[in-house]
Amino acid sequence: MPWKLYRLKFEDYPEYSARITGHFAGDMLIIEEEGELSEEAVNFLKEALGVESDTRKFDIEPKDIMKLPLDKLPKGDRQTLLATAEKLDSESKLHIEYRYQPSFD
User: Fold this and answer.
1) Can you give the pTM of this predicted structure?
2) Geometric angle at alpha carbon 31, from 64 and 50, rounded to 5°
3) Structure confidence by residue, pLDDT tens digits, 50-101
4) Which residues touch 77 (CB under 8 Å, ≥6 apart)?
């Protein structure tokens, strides 16, 4: 399954840490891979969110998750999505992206 589910979270990168590491202070984006979703689940989510069918990546805001009829998703995909959604806060969102990795067997 080449569809990957990521959790994107913005964290504050304070000025004192920035000075130590030589970076700029401000928000820092943390990307965590949470699992994979089936083609069927992704097509369902696209349809429910009004995303075009040929889109290869899209985001799901925390407010949108409550609107989705998740009981219609396959069980494994539903569990993955719900487990990831539990980790969301106001500074984060879900990101689904097609990540094809060719096999060289």
Assistant:
1) 0.80
2) 25
3) 999 999 999 999 889 888 888 899 999 999 999 999 999 888 999 999 987 6
4) 37, 38, 40, 41
75: in domain: yes
Domain count, the chain: 1
- Does 92 reside within a domain? yes
Q: Residue 41 class from Cβ within 10 Å (0-12 exposed, 13-18 middle, 19+ buried)? A: buried
Query: Under DSSP, is residue 67 helix (H, G, I), strand (E, B) or coil?
Result: coil
Q: Is residue 78 part of a domain?
A: yes
How far is 90 from 26, CA to CA, in rounded Å?
17
d(CA 84, CA 77): 11
> Within the chain, where are the H helices?
15-21, 39-49, 62-65, 75-85
Q: Is residue 80 part of a domain?
A: yes
